[in-house]
């Protein structure tokens, strides 16, 4: 039996990946840039076992059967192809999040699985090739190979679409992210379905593609010059542009719930009070605040006035993938 284990941390995009050029290989329409965080990670063990007649996937001790196990099995098919084997695998994954917050992330999960398979099958992949592999599981996972800031350079083929580390001279350690967990009754649209629908039907999608190139360049300047205001303002604006595309889709949809809007307004108000804080959002209602580590205690005090303590989780920059 071939066995391997890895831990990968989740990442949050400051410049969003939104739309695929190639759905099978997961080649994105645009480059993206993220910060890997220390607070949430997936630890995954994979065992390729000739006795198995199908893949089995345990998440936090529970047998998974739905969409997440499908995504996982499709990914394993790709790995089996690369390694030229037919053996099925048992996957045991733990998602480590501070509370049961619905923050399970495909980025950390698929990156950890790629790392575990790399170890189990002795593929000896370089970081670049591991990033390419993780990308085929879930696009955003290719960025979780790296700690701190990472850019997924879109490329146009399997060979040249991968993430790489963006050196920030340790500046990432001065930053923090506060997650505001938002209750949501709305029916989920997965990021996969959401971006597909947007690319195919939203007249705003072309505008997104034009804007994101400039936002990415600005963000890289902000990192190079350690300009927090430029970094935060650009990230917030970029997230709003991504979410704007969904309203133009057919049928239209949004990831925002009323409480998301409330949270975004709180962040704007805190900024007016002088705090360095900007928000971003992904394919769900939670609001994430990018801020400076030095301002976290004061910000939490303010946020605690309107959000319950257990709805606020603080994270800092996290490390790259660890393979055991
Ligand atoms: C909004 O990486 O989850 O979080 O490639 O289909 O698995 P698939 O999508 P996924 O999409 C993430 C979208 C996002 C923005 C981002 O993380 O860049």
What small molecules does this complex bind? Answer: ligand DP6
Estimated structural class: alpha+beta
CATH-assigned fold name: Ribosomal Protein S5, domain 2
Integer tally of domains: 1
Spans of at least 5 consecutive residues with low confidence: none
How much strand?
Answer: 25-35%
Q: State the oligomer.
A: single chain
- What is the CATH C-level name? Alpha Beta
Largest sheet: 8 strands, mixed
Q: In DSSP terms, counting alpha (H) and pi (I) runs of 4 or more, how many helices?
A: 8
What is the overall shape? globular
End-to-end distance: 16 Å
CATH architecture: 2-Layer Sandwich
Number of strands: 14
Mean pLDDT metric: 95
- N-to-C series of helices and strands: EEEEEEHEHHEEEHHHHEEHEE
Task: Describe the fold and architecture.
The mean pLDDT is 95. Strand 5 and strand 6 form a beta hairpin. The protein has 324 residues and is an alpha+beta fold. It contains 8 helices and 14 strands. Strands 1, 4, 5, 6, 7, 8, 9 and 14 form an 8-stranded mixed beta sheet that branches. A 4-stranded antiparallel beta sheet has the order 11-12-10-13. A two-stranded antiparallel sheet has the order 2-3. 35% of the residues lie in helices and 25% in strands. The structure holds ligand DP6. Ligand DP6 binds next to helix 4. Ligand DP6 binds at residues 13, 16-17, 26, 32, 106, 138-140, 191-192, 282-283.
């Amino acid at each position: 039996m071939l066995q391997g284990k890895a831990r990968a941390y989740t990442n949050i995009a400051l410049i969003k990946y939104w739309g695929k050029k190639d759905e099978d290989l997961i080649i994105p329409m645009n480059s993206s840039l993220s910060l890997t965080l220390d607070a949430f990670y997936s630890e995954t063990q994979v065992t390729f076992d000739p006795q198995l007649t199908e893949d089995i996937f345990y998440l936090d001790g529970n047998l998974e059967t739905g969409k997440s196990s499908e995504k996982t099995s499709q990914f394993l098919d790709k790995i089996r192809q690369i390694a030229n084997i037919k053996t099925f695998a048992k996957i045991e994954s733990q998602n480590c999040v501070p509370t049961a917050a619905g923050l399970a992330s495909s980025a950390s999960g698929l990156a950890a699985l790629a790392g575990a398979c790399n170890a189990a099958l002795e593929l000896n992949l370089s970081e670049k090739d591991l990033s390419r592999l993780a990308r085929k599981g879930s696009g955003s996972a290719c960025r979780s190979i790296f700690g701190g800031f990472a850019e997924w350079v879109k490329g146009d083929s399997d060979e040249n679409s991968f993430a790489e580390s963006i050196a920030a001279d340790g500046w990432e350690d001065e930053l923090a992210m506060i997650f505001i967990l938002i209750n949501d009754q709305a029916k989920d649209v997965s990021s996969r379905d959401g971006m597909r629908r947007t690319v195919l039907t939203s007249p705003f999608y072309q505008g997104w593609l034009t804007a994101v190139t400039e936002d990415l360049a600005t963000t890289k300047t902000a990192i190079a010059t350690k300009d927090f205001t430029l970094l935060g303002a650009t990230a917030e604006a970029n997230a709003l542009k991504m979410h704007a595309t969904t309203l133009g889709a057919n049928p239209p949809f949004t990831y925002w719930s009323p409480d998301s809007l409330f949270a975004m307004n709180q962040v704007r108000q805190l900024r007016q009070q002088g705090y360095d804080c900007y928000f971003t959002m992904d394919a769900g209602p939670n609001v994430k605040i990018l801020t400076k580590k030095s301002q976290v205690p004061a910000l939490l005090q303010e946020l605690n006035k309107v959000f319950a303590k257990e709805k606020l989780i603080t994270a800092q920059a996290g490390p790259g993938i660890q393979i055991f």
